[in-house]
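Entry 14. Structure prediction run on the chain below.
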Amino acid sequence: MSKRFWNMYKKGLVKSYATPPLAGNPREVEAWGLTQAAIRMKDAQKSGDPEVIRAAVRLNWQLWTIIQAELLSPQCTTPIDLRSNVLSLAKFIDKQIVEVISDAKSEKLDILITINRELASGLYETPKENSDDSTGRSSGEDADRPDTPPSGGITV
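Output returned:
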C-alpha cells in the first residue's frame, strides 16, 4: 500500500475496501474498483496458484476494458490529454496482463498492483486545483447546477 493511500486510510478518507461506494460519485466507484482488483491480485500473488493469479488478472483486465471504453466514448468529458495518458497506460496494462495470463508468475503482478493502487489513491483524493468550492468542480463547470455530481470517467 502506498504511503499516500495509507495516510488517507488512517484519516478515514478510504472508508472500506469491502463496501462499494454509493452511486453518484464516479471517482469513488472507479477508485473502489481499482482497489478491489489490486487486493485480489495481491491475494492471488500470495497464493502463488497460477489459476488464482489468472482469475485475478482477468478481473483486472475486465475493469481496464471498462475504463478504456469509457474514455473512448463520445460522451467522455475527461480532458483529451488525460484521456490519452490513461489510454496509453491501459495499453501497457493490457500487454502486462497478456504476459501474466501466458506465464502466471507471482512477481509479474507487482506492476499491475502498484498501478491500480496509485491510480485509486489519486481518485480517492478530492481535486483542489482550479476549484471554486468543496465539490472539486473547476471554475464554471456545472455552475448552473451546483448539486450535480462530477461527470464520469477517469478524472485524476
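The radius of gyration is 16 Å.
Filed with the rest of this week's runs.
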